[in-house]
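Review this:
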Amino acid sequence: MCIRDRHWDAYREAFENFDPVRVGAYDDVDVERVLATPGILRMPRKIHATIHNASSMLEADREYGSFTSYLRSFDSYATLAKDLKQRFALMGDMNVWYFLFRTGERVPRFEPWVATIRGDHPRMREMVERARALGRSPEC
C-alpha cells in the first residue's frame, strides 16, 4: 500500500467514510478527534472546510432534489465552476475540475484547460493520466 492510500484510509476513517450527513453535523469535539487521527495532516482549516462542504452538499441536494441534479442544472462548465467555488470552501479552479472529473461529470479537455491556469501542475497532470489509464475520462 502506498503512502497516499494510507492517508486516504485515515481520512475515510476520521470522516466516517465521508458520509455528508454525519460530517455536516461535526462540532468542535469532532474536529479535535479528526485532528488527532494518525495519518491525518493537521490542518484545521481543511477539516473545517470539509465539514462546511458536507453541509453545502446536503443543502444543494435539498434545493435541487439531488446533488447530481444540482451539478447538471448549469448550462456550462464555467457557470457550474463559478457556483462550486462560491458554494464550497477551498474550491479553486483545480479542485473544481478534478472533483468533477473524478465524479464522472463533464469537464473541459484537460490539456487546453490547464493551460489557462497559472503555474505548472505536474501532480494534477499525473492524477489525470492515471485516471485516464484506468478508463475514467468524462472529458468533453
